[in-house]
Amino acid sequence: MSETILRLEDVTRIHGTGEAQVTALAGVSLEVAAGELVAVMGPSGSGKSTLLNLAGGLDAPTTGTVVIEGQALGQLGKDGLARLRRRRVGFVFQDFNLIPSLTAAENVALPLELDGQRVGKARRRAVDALNTVGVGELADRYPDKMSGGQQQRVAIARALVGDRRLVLADEPTGALDSHTGEGVLRVLRERCDAGAAGLLVTHEARHAAWADRVVFLRDGVVVDSTGGDVAESLLEPTA
After folding, report:
1. Which segments within 34-152 are labelled E, that is strand?
2. Are β-strands 166-170 and 89-93 bridged in parallel, bridged antiparallel, or unpaired?
């Protein structure tokens, strides 16, 4: 049986109080194993991004438990959560979040350097990660000299560099053309096949087809779960 990398146990997230109170997630439980890519789908406002933020320790659940590689995030302080995100969790965002004043290699090496690695070693690992996603030749190029697809691949390299076992991707192909988007998904799929666990938020059934499982959210509740190869036939038009 594959090692469980991410586990959410009966997680609820409530924002606001009184009449302004909104339940973003309501009792969600989910496990993602090493080697597995899980897609999360659902209408806008269904809780997809909230789920991703909780999974990566960017937000804390109102109730319930989030566990990454056996470590309950609620037991970690601010510094412990920051270390966990640097070392174990890779985030891929739709808007890339690259630092304009840094080259591709410097952007990818940054989390390693923040974690105390020497500049030379961090750069070597960054270049290796860039080569893995097919943009090694861009190591010394700045983000404004790259296409959207190239920027996204650099962002993925940053999410994968080091020994991270959990990759969280929030609509990573939303700003890309279909051909480039397929390339991005292929990289995520290959990383999971190599042993990482992946959680992908997407609106596109054809993108969810890259996943091993698809979890459907509606109003903060898991309403269905199925294999990625039948996601398109089960997806409702409103999703």
Report:
1. 37-41, 63-68, 71-72, 89-93
2. parallel
- Burial track 45-65 (b if 16+ CB lie within 10 A, e otherwise): ebbbbbbbbbbbbebebeebe
Q: What is the value of pTM for the model shown?
A: 0.87
C-alpha span between 213 and 192 (Å, rounded): 13
For 211, residues 6+ apart whose C-beta sits below 8 A from its C-beta are: 37, 38, 39, 198, 200, 228, 231
Rg over CA atoms, the chain: 18
103 CB-side CA count, 13 A: 13
For residue 118, which phi and psi values (nearest 5 degrees)? Answer: -65, 150
Summarize pLDDT for 95-108 with one digit per residue, the tens: 888 999 999 999 99
| 38, 69 contact by CB (below 8 A) | no
Q: Are strands 213-218 and 37-41 parallel, antiparallel or unpaired?
A: parallel
Q: What is the pLDDT of residues 106-151, one digit of tens each?
A: 999 999 999 899 999 999 999 999 998 889 999 999 999 999 889 9
Q: Does pLDDT of 6 surpass 70?
A: yes
**Tokens representing residue 228 in the block:** 């990625």
* 3-class state of residue 226 by DSSP: strand
Query: What domains can be seen in the chain, in order of their start residue?
Result: 1-88+163-232 (3.40.50.300), 95-160 (no CATH)
